[in-house]
Structures are given as C-alpha cells and as structure tokens.
Design brief:
Shape: elongated
Strand content: 5-15%
Mean pLDDT: 76
Strand order of the largest sheet: 3-4-5
Low-confidence stretches: 1-23
C-alpha cells in the first residue's frame, strides 16, 4: 500500500479549497440591492421607487414624472414625484449599490498565482506545478465577508429610512410653494401677492398668466413673486420649480 505524504503544493490547494467552502460568494443583484427598499415603499406607503443608473432608466423616470405632473397635483402625487425625482434619495441608493459592490468583492477569495518549476536529478527532470494563494487573505475571508454583508444590510436600511422620511416630509401639510393665477374674481393675483408675502414670507409664489409681457412680469416680481409662468403652462418649467421646492423642503 502506497502512503500519501502531502507536499507544500498539496497543502496550499487544500487551504484554498477550504476557504472557498467557508464563505459563500455573493453576486450582484439586478436592481443594485433595491429589493428591500422597494418592498418597504410598496407595503408601507404604497409608492414606487426607482434607482436611476442608465440613460434608459432616466428616460423612463422622467416620463413617469411628466405623466404625474400632467394631472392635478395632490399630496400623494407630490410624494410619488419626490420619490422618483429627488437627488438626495438617488445618492442614498447609489451608496447602497456601492455597499453591494463591496460585499461582492469581499466575498471573493484572493486570486491564486500559478508557477511551474523544473527539478533535475539523476539525469532526469520533473515538472512541479504550484498553486500559491494568499494564506492570510484566505483565512480572513469569512470575517471580511460577514462585515461587508452587515454593511450592505445597514445601507439597505438607511436607503429605506431615507425613502420613508422623504415621503413623510412631503406629506407634511406645510406650505412650500404657492401657484396663483393673476386673473381671479374679486381680487387679482397681483393684488393678492403683498398679502400672501406678509403672511408667508418664507413661501415662494409663482404667478400664472395668459399675458407674459414685460410689464406684467415686472409688477409680479416687484410684489414678491419668484417667477411668472405663461399659459399654456410649460410643464417642464413647472416640474423644475416643484422639484426645486420639494428638495428644499426635504
């Protein structure tokens, strides 16, 4: 019976195989780790979320926001617009994607190096193949993987909380923007402006008119309006103004 004596290469291979078995390799998800955030938003506030990572996704999100703004703006619609179009929220989602990338990276074993040496003796030669791995990296792989997984879960929780926080703040009945037509019965929008500014000095006012002449614009700005939109309404400009106020309110 032949006795097997493990050599150094055999030991290295065994350690490499053991390390691979100790830690399961994580893989990238299709949604950048957004599954938990989507489930929380869907079950808790009945709203959709979107992590924009490509031009195609940006176009889809912009189209969805445009459809929402084409209808009368309600509190719930404002929440959905904010969730789809808030830059701060996108930053939280990006941090989540980075945490997932770190999890995948820290779940992979270090790349082994391969070497071939030739041993000569008694007129004969023998080729010895070695697989050399980073022993320290292999030994600490399970611990690094666990730490990265905890960070990923923390990033998921942070993104979900940021989503709920934004929704709650947008639902707050606090006044963040006033849109008013200039032509109104009883009192014109221009006459109303000084009264509104006196009662709500921190709330911006945008006037809407069918006449966008320089004189009307001058009077509106002098009386406290921050902008003047002409009819028919340019929804791109209106969306930009609403987005700006929602982000400031957040």
């Amino acid at each position: 019976m032949r006795k097997f004596c493990p050599t150094a290469p055999h030991i290295r291979l065994l350690m490499l195989a053991s390390a691979l078995g100790l830690s399961g390799c994580a893989a990238f998800s299709e949604d950048g780790g957004m599954t938990v955030v989507s489930e929380v938003a869907g079950k808790t506030i009945k709203k959709d979320v979107a992590f924009v990572r490509s031009a195609g996704q940006a176009e889809q999100t912009n189209s969805a926001v445009a459809r929402l703004l084409s209808r009368p703006l309600t509190a719930e619609t404002a929440v959905q617009v904010a969730l789809l179009n808030n830059k701060g929220l996108q930053a939280s989602y990006n941090e989540l994607a980075l945490a997932e990338a770190e999890l995948v990276q820290d779940s992979l074993p270090p790349n082994p190096t391969f070497s071939i040496s030739r041993i000569a003796g008694d007129g004969a030669s023998e080729a010895e193949r070695q697989v050399v791995g980073d022993i320290l990296g292999l030994a600490t792989l399970p611990f690094r993987s666990d730490i990265a997984r905890d960070r990923f879960r923390a990033a998921q929780l942070k993104a979900a909380l940021a989503t709920l926080k934004l929704a709650a703040e947008v639902r707050d009945p606090s006044l963040i923007l006033i849109l008013s037509d200039i032509n109104m019965p009883g009192m014109s929008g221009l006459d109303m402006l000084p009264k509104v500014r006196a009662e709500h000095p921190d709330v911006p006012v945008i006037m809407i008119t069918a006449y966008g002449d320089a004189e009307t614009r001058r009077k509106a700005i002098e009386r406290g309006a921050v902008g003047l939109l002409t009819k028919p309404i340019d929804f791109a400009l209106l969306r930009q103004e609403i987005d700006t106020r929602l982000e400031q309110a957040a």
